[in-house]
Amino acid sequence: LNHLVITLTQHELNEDPGDWICNTLRHASDHLSEKTKIWGGAYLLAHGAIKVFLVVGILRHKMWAYPTAMIVIGIFILIQGAKLCMHFSFPLLIATAIDIAIVLLIWREYRRAKRNHSPLL
Fold first, then answer.
1. Between the CA of residue 97 and those of 1, 90, 107, 109, 111, what are the distances in Å?
2. Per 3-state DSSP, what percentage of the chain is helix, strand, and coil (rounded to 5)?
3. pLDDT tens-digit readout, 52-94
4. How many Å apart are CA 74 and CA 70, to the nearest integer?
5. Those residues with Cβ within 8 angstroms of residue 16's Cβ, 6 or more apart along the chain or in another chain
6. 81, 100 in Cβ contact below 8 A?
7. Which of 28, 65, 78, 110 is least enclosed, having the fewest CB within 10 Å?
8. Three-state DSSP class for 23?
């Protein structure tokens, strides 16, 4: 993780050594505990795998996928909210805001899909 952060921030720091975001990312990656790295990696893998599964269902217009996606992502939002309450993290705040936006978009698409959905006889 530390190597990835260094690789991703190196170009920007060469141009602007005082870049706050890059320096903050590097500092944060230097100070992550093993427990945090394991939890973060597992969480991100599960989060991504579940979202991919649900997106496939939505793209195939499976009506069950819409409410399931909203519930599952809602659970992730609650978990992230609890983590934010225990220890504030700006990246986690942004991820949570994106998840909220995704739930709102899924809800909008679900309403549209229900209007256009004709059940099979």
1. 24, 11, 15, 19, 21
2. 85, 0, 15
3. 999 999 999 899 999 999 999 999 999 999 989 998 888 889 9
4. 6
5. 22
6. no
7. 78
8. helix
* Angle between helix 65-86 and helix 90-116 axes, rounded to 10 deg: 160
CA–CA distance, 37 with 28 (Å, rounded to integer): 11
Q: Which two tokens stand for residue 76?
A: 């992730």
Angstrom CA distances, 22 to 15, 41, 55, 72, 73, stand at 11, 20, 32, 32, 29
Residue 105 corresponds to which tokens in the numbers above? 């978009």
Residues comprising the chain, all counted: 121
Token code pair at residue 24: 């903050």
pTM exceeding 0.90: no
